[in-house]
């Protein structure tokens, strides 16, 4: 209490508040004042006079001394606290702080100065330390002179100080002595080192000429003679050259060790330099942190102080008004008394009895009436002020938070690293600029939507301990937006920038029905299962052998389309998979397909089929049940044959040889061969220059075979109607040959320079079926027709 | 069986040679042409026998057909014998161009005065192959036969009468059914007698009917403008009909505009060489 009141007084010296609260009643009072009342006036407003005086001298003195010594008191606040009673610790600390920052009107300036001070203190530590005792004294002198009432605690503090100062003095003195000692010691060390050098070199130079062996025991070269008879008689010796060798080796080893140490020390030195920088950085951060927190604390204190002071001033005003009222009524009473006394005295001077009596009666009544009135001599208000509890809890909280870690800065989210995503998961990484203390991170994400109301998309939040996280259960080939905040006890950082990551695509689906292959190549096509486009595709192929099954032997990367022509080796089996790629990574493998490079494999192009032509379930048997209305009303696709009941196959566009067979029935009329993709759909196969085919017709007398191109055929008789026709397309030799495959009989060969790639073609001219066989190795007998 | 080289000319890195020898079968000196492909210098090669037509000697084929390049390419030895015994002084042998000298018809004659010397069937079938195999780097297991006109007839009957002996057979405008044509009737009647049933043994169309179920790929080219076709000397339709019935595989190509000459042969000789090479080199 006592110390607090002392503080309050000090505040008043620099504050306008007291003046404001005191002055309004004063003019009123002085106008209405009677001289006799000055006594009261003096008593009540005595303090005001002091207020007028104080700001001029003592408060200025305090300010100056405070300004000078602030840093010292900060540094030594710990020591002050030690010397205080335990119960006062907190109060004292707050008081010190308040005195440091709260006393002056221009606090901000002071705070700026404080920053500078702290820095200088850091660099000039020892001098400040030495000056401490003296300046400390001046602080307390100032405070003594400024506060007329010296309380117990202050005395204690002052008493404690000199002894501390002297202790410090002792310590520094001891340190100086230590240093001196160490100096002498090192000098001694040096001199002794020099001495030992001299000592060790002497014997070597003396005995060099004669020495021929080395005494291992004495570690010195000696003459062989000494070994036999001298003092080294029983000592272990070695030949000098070998001894020199071993010694050199030893020295070399030590040299190596020295070099290692040098390297170590250099590393350590550079590490230290880094640490220096880190210390500087950490200091800067910590400084800022302190500044911010202390600022807060001071602001809160100033605010509290103003509130308290206002309340106090209000109370004072009320008290004074009450007392003033009482005083006025008291004066009125006195006036009445005086008047009555005067009237009574006048009455006593009245000589006329009758008039006296007449007046006396009224006078007595008046007196009686007046005396009947009670005289209130109790104070309407007490001079004591209401006890006010100063609430420091908020400041305390602020003070506590000064020592805790600052809230972290916003983390930096990394852009997506390649190949870190799968179709359903993403690995997100982020980092921090500085070494913030972070308890965990709050990772948020949501799918990126092109629609406007993307905000309605559900946001997900995760708590993560590490600086990375793998998020699962995502949609394939989808963009997600990520942002992250760092969290510690002091709070949560602002969120990082938003980073867009994309999940890997879904595995594509290979169109197994559209695969085409031949001995040296395969054409594989697939479709993406994602709506969003992907960057490219990778095809993985493995050659299947008896020993190793399914090892990846080749990858074709960067395929932009959903189709690729792969060069392969003949008569092998391959397993082929496709992956889709985007920025995030590659999809899982597609379902594999097996490709055998035995013969040529193609499929039928259903789009080209005449409406009357049926493809059976195996995909390679075509049938025609009826021939009526060949140009009927059945639905016709744009690409389908309209007159000839035919169909095209889809042959791989690859040069080289292609062989396939067609199984026919003896009584079926057909046309089989090849045609350009754009061969007229309304014509007959072989009737134009874009198709080449073998035609079978049954005449009343015989089976007739035509080999048609542009409607022309050679006259050829075939005695054995073929049941299985082999067709060899040889781009390189510009030939298309037909064989009776059952008996390896060559039937006919077209020689034609095929300008474009052709496709197999098949047509039925009577009800019946044609069975197409692919994937057959080209028979050797086709080599020479 | 001594061979006497008559000529030797380098041709397509191989050699076209002509030899003369004393034939035991024909009891006279016989010449034959033989083309040795370059491959014959290092290894054994299959032999393709060519039988020429009426009036021809061993020279016609080797000088006119232009077969050498294809034969060199496929490594075939091509042997072209004469078409009849010569200088045997058989009465009447030089009276007509379609009988006697130059028209042996590839039969073993049974009638006098022909039966001593006119044994061309046995000569082509046995003596010549034996001679060739003994003197040249051949593979005796691989031989084929082809011919033109009367030689086409000879090739067909040799193949049909000896299933398996020849890997393949082909013919240019062969006399397919000699029993039914003027040439055939004259020759077969002269060499074999008037009993037509004996002729059947040398008639391709007849032989097909009794040919066992053994694979034989027959290629026949016929010029459509061949005067002997229209004259009914060749009768390929009869042969084709017989083959169709017996399911003997034949590809018969009626070549528009071609006649009976060696120009026709030269045009399609490569197809025939390839046809044989396919089986001989299989």
UniProtKB/TrEMBL annotation, chain A:
Q: Specify residue ranges for compositional bias: Basic and acidic residues.
A: 170-186
SMART domains (alphabetical): FN3, SPRY
Q: Where is the composition biased (Polar residues)?
A: 135-169
What taxonomic classification does the UniProt entry list for its organism?
A: Eukaryota, Metazoa, Chordata, Craniata, Vertebrata
Query: Gene3D superfamilies, alphabetically?
Result: 2.60.120.920, Classic Zinc Finger, Immunoglobulins
Organism of origin is: Columba livia (Rock dove)
According to UniProt, the name of this protein is Fibronectin type III and SPRY domain containing 2, transcript variant X1
Q: Which residues form the Fibronectin type-III domain?
A: 411-507, 508-600
PANTHER family (UniProt xref) = E3 UBIQUITIN-PROTEIN LIGASE TRIM36-RELATED, FIBRONECTIN TYPE III AND SPRY DOMAIN-CONTAINING PROTEIN 2
Q: Name one Pfam family in it.
A: fn3
InterPro entries in the record = B30.2/SPRY, B30.2/SPRY_sf, Butyrophylin_SPRY, ConA-like_dom_sf, E3_ligase_FN3/SPRY, FN3_dom, FN3_sf, Ig-like_fold
**B30.2/SPRY domain ranges (all copies):** 582-781
SUPFAM superfamilies recorded for this chain? B-box zinc-binding domain, Concanavalin A-like lectins/glucanases, Fibronectin type III
Coiled-coil regions listed: 295-322
Q: Which UniProt keywords apply?
A: Coiled coil
Automatic annotation (TrEMBL), chain B:
Q: Name one GO molecular function term.
A: carboxylic ester hydrolase activity
Domain of life according to the entry? Eukaryota
- Identify the keywords attached in UniProt to this record, alphabetized: Cytoplasm, Hydrolase, Serine esterase
SUPFAM superfamilies linked: alpha/beta-Hydrolases
- UniProt keyword Hydrolase, yes or no: yes
Its family remark reads:
Belongs to the esterase D family.
Q: What does this protein do?
A: Serine hydrolase involved in the detoxification of formaldehyde.
Residues at the active site: 149 (charge relay system), 226 (charge relay system), 260 (charge relay system)
Name of the molecule in the record: S-formylglutathione hydrolase
Coiled-coil intervals: none
Documented EC number(s): 3.1.2.12
Question: Could you read off the lineage of the organism from its UniProt record?
Answer: Eukaryota, Metazoa, Chordata, Craniata, Vertebrata
- One GO process term, biological-process aspect: formaldehyde catabolic process
Localization (cell) = Cytoplasm
Under the heading InterPro entries, the entry gives: AB_hydrolase_fold, Esterase-like, S-formylglutathione_hydrol
Among the entry's GO cellular component annotations, what is one?
A: cytosol
Task: Give the catalysed reaction(s), semicolon-separated.
Answer: S-formylglutathione + H2O = formate + glutathione + H(+)
What Pfam family does this protein match (any one)? Esterase
Predominant subcellular localization, coarse grouping: cytoplasm
């Amino acid at each position: 209490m006592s110390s607090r009141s002392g503080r309050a007084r000090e505040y008043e010296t620099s504050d306008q508040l007291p003046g404001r609260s005191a002055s309004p009643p004063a003019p009123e009072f002085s106008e209405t004042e009677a001289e006799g009342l000055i006594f009261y006036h003096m008593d009540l407003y005595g303090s005001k006079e002091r207020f007028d005086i104080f700001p001029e001298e003592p408060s200025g003195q305090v300010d100056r001394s405070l300004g000078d010594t602030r840093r010292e008191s900060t540094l030594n606040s710990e020591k002050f606290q030690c010397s205080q009673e335990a119960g006062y610790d907190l109060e004292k600390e707050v008081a010190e702080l308040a005195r440091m920052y709260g006393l002056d009107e221009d606090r901000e300036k002071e705070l700026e100065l404080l920053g500078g001070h702290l820095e200088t203190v850091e660099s000039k530590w020892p001098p400040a330390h030495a000056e401490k005792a003296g300046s400390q004294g001046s602080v307390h002198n100032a405070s003594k002179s400024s506060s007329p009432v010296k309380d117990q605690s202050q005395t204690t503090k002052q008493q404690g100080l000199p002894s501390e100062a002297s202790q410090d003095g002792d310590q520094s003195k001891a340190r100086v002595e230590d240093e001196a000692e160490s100096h002498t010691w090192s000098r001694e060390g040096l001199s002794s080192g020099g001495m030992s050098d001299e000592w060790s070199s002497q014997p070597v130079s003396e005995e060099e000429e004669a020495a021929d062996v080395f005494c291992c025991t004495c570690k010195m070269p000696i003459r062989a003679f000494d070994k036999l008879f001298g003092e080294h008689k029983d000592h272990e010796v070695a030949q000098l050259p070998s001894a020199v060798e071993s010694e050199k080796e030893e020295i070399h080893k030590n040299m190596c060790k020295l070099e290692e140490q040098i390297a170590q020390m250099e590393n350590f030195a550079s590490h230290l330099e880094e640490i220096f920088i880190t210390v500087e950085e950490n200091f800067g951060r910590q400084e800022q942190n302190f500044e911010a927190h202390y600022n807060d604390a001071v602001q809160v204190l100033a605010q509290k102080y103003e509130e308290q002071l206002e309340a106090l001033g209000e109370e004072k005003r009320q008290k004074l008004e009450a007392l003033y009222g009482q005083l006025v009524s008291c004066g009125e009473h006195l006036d009445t008394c005086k008047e009555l006394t005067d009237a009574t005295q006048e009455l006593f001077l009245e000589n006329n009895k009758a008039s006296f009596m007449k007046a006396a009666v009224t006078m007595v009544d008046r007196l009686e009436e007046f005396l009947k009135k009670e005289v209130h001599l109790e104070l309407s208000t007490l001079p004591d002020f209401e006890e006010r509890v100063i609430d420091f809890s908020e400041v305390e909280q602020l003070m506590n938070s000064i020592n805790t870690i600052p809230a972290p800065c916003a983390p930096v989210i990394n852009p997506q690293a390649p190949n870190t995503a799968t179709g359903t998961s993403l690995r997100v990484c982020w980092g921090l600029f500085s070494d913030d203390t972070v308890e965990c991170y709050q990772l948020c994400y949501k799918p990126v939507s092109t629609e406007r109301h993307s905000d309605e998309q559900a946001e997900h939040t995760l708590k993560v301990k590490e600086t990375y996280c793998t998020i699962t259960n995502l949609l394939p080939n989808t963009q997600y937006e990520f942002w992250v905040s760092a969290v510690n006890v002091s709070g949560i950082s602002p969120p990082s920038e938003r980073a867009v990551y994309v999940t890997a695509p879904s595995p594509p689906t290979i169109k197994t029905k559209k695969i085409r292959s031949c001995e040296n190549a395969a054409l594989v096509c697939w479709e993406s299962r994602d709506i969003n486009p992907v960057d490219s595709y990778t095809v993985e192929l493995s050659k299947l052998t008896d020993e190793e099954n399914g090892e990846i032997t080749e990858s074709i990367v960067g395929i932009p389309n959903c189709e690729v022509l792969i060069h392969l080796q003949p008569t092998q089996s391959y397993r082929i998979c496709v992956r889709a790629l985007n920025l995030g990574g590659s999809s899982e493998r597609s379902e594999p397909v097996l490709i055998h490079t035995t013969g040529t494999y193609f499929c039928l192009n259903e789009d080209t089929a005449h409406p009357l032509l049926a493809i059976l379930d195996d995909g390679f048997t075509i049938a025609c049940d009826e021939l009526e209305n060949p140009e009927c009303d059945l639905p016709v696709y744009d690409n389908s044959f309209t007159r000839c009941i035919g169909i095209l196959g889809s042959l791989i566009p690859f040069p080289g040889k292609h062989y396939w067979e067609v199984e026919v029935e003896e009584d079926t009329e057909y046309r089989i061969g090849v045609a350009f993709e754009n061969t007229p759909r309304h014509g007959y196969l072989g009737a134009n220059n874009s198709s080449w085919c073998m035609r079978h017709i049954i005449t009343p007398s015989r089976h007739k075979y035509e080999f048609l191109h542009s409607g022309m055929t050679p006259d050829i008789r075939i005695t054995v109607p073929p049941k299985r026709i082999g067709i060899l397309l040889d781009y390189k030799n510009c030939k298309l040959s037909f064989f009776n495959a059952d008996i390896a009989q060559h039937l006919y060969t077209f020689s034609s320079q095929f300008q474009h790639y052709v496709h197999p073609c098949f047509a039925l001219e009577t009800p019946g079926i044609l069975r197409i066989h692919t994937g057959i190795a080209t028979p050797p007998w086709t080599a020479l027709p | 069986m001594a061979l006497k080289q008559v000529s030797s000319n380098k041709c397509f890195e191989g050699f076209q040679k002509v030899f003369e020898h004393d034939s035991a079968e024909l009891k006279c000196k016989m010449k034959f042409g033989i083309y040795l492909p370059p491959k014959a210098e290092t290894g054994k090669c299959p032999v393709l026998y060519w039988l020429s037509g009426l009036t021809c000697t061993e020279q016609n084929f080797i000088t006119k057909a232009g077969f050498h390049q294809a034969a060199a390419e496929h490594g075939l030895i091509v042997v072209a014998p004469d078409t009849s015994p010569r200088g045997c002084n058989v009465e009447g042998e030089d009276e007509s161009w379609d009988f006697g000298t130059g028209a042996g018809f590839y039969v073993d004659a049974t009638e006098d005065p022909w039966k001593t010397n006119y044994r061309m069937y046995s000569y082509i079938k046995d003596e010549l192959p034996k001679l060739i195999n003994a003197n040249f780097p051949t593979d005796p297991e691989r031989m084929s036969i082809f011919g033109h006109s009367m030689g086409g007839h000879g090739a067909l009957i040799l193949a049909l009468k000896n299933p398996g002996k020849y890997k393949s057979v082909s013919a240019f405008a062969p006399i397919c059914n000699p029993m039914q044509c003027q040439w055939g009737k004259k020759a077969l009647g002269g060499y074999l007698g008037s009993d037509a049933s004996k002729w059947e043994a040398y008639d391709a169309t007849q032989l097909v009917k009794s040919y066992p179920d053994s694979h034989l790929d027959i290629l026949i080219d016929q010029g459509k403008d061949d005067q002997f076709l229209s004259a009914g000397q060749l009768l390929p339709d009869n042969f084709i009909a017989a083959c169709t019935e017996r399911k003997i595989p034949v590809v018969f190509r009626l070549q528009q505009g071609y006649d009976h000459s060696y120009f026709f042969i030269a045009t399609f000789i490569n197809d025939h060489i390839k046809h044989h090479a396919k089986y001989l080199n299989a």
